[in-house]
């Protein structure tokens, strides 16, 4: 059974910029730069038939390339922090792409997501990290920002079961393309 999820690979320069945020933080397991990505839809451990259905549904997604940028840092888990992340500037194209991934997952028979999609790049998983130390990290990195970069495809990743943070394998790449506008052809009346 493959453990699958969809996401966006990040350009090398962006991953290098994110890697510079790494700092000594007790309890943090930092994601290696090569494995930094933005998850669109986690599928989990699914059988090969459902994985094929999911890939087929993903192949039907229509979306034009778009630009995005990363901004700020944050934490999931509140008083018991569980992960550090870099945020994404508001982006309607990214939100629409994530909705299309959710539809593809449901088309393949996957259960609906329990949580609303929150665009982010996980930087580190936290275990027993003190909230005050994490708050200090967020204070120092809150102004983080990357230049805009072009998103031209999304990928289907696989991961080893029960591991977080990689290594991840790209199983398939799906290019985004400029959808041609609908063309209406008018038939000119011709003389008899």
Mean pLDDT figure: 90
Uncertain segments: 182-192
Number of strands: 10
What CATH architecture label applies?
A: Alpha-Beta Complex
Q: Determine the number of helices (DSSP H or I, runs of at least 4 residues).
A: 4
The order of strands across the largest sheet is 3-1-9-10
C-alpha end-to-end distance: 66 Å
**Domain unit count:** 1
CATH superfamily: Cyclic phosphodiesterase
Which descriptor suits the 3D outline? Answer: globular
Main structural class: alpha+beta
Q: What is the class in the CATH system?
A: Alpha Beta
DSSP strand content = 25-35%
CATH-defined fold name: Cyclic Phosphodiesterase, Chain: A
Helical content band? 10-25%
Largest sheet: 4 strands, antiparallel
Rg calc = 20 Å
Order of helix and strand elements from N to C terminus: EHEEHEEEHEHEEE
Question: What's the topology here?
Answer:
Layout: E1 3-9, H1 12-19, E2 28-30, E3 37-45, H2 48-59, E4 66-68, E5 70-76, E6 83-88, H3 92-107, E7 120-126, H4 131-141, E8 149-151, E9 153-159, E10 168-175
Antiparallel strand pairs: 1-3, 1-9, 2-7, 4-8, 5-6, 6-7, 9-10
Explain how this protein is built.
This protein has a single domain, classed as Alpha-Beta Complex (Cyclic Phosphodiesterase, Chain: A), CATH 3.90.1140. Helices cover 24% and strands 31% of the residues. It contains 4 helices and 10 strands. The strands form 3 sheets. It has a 4-stranded antiparallel β-sheet with strand order 3-1-9-10, with helices on one face. The longest helix has 16 residues.
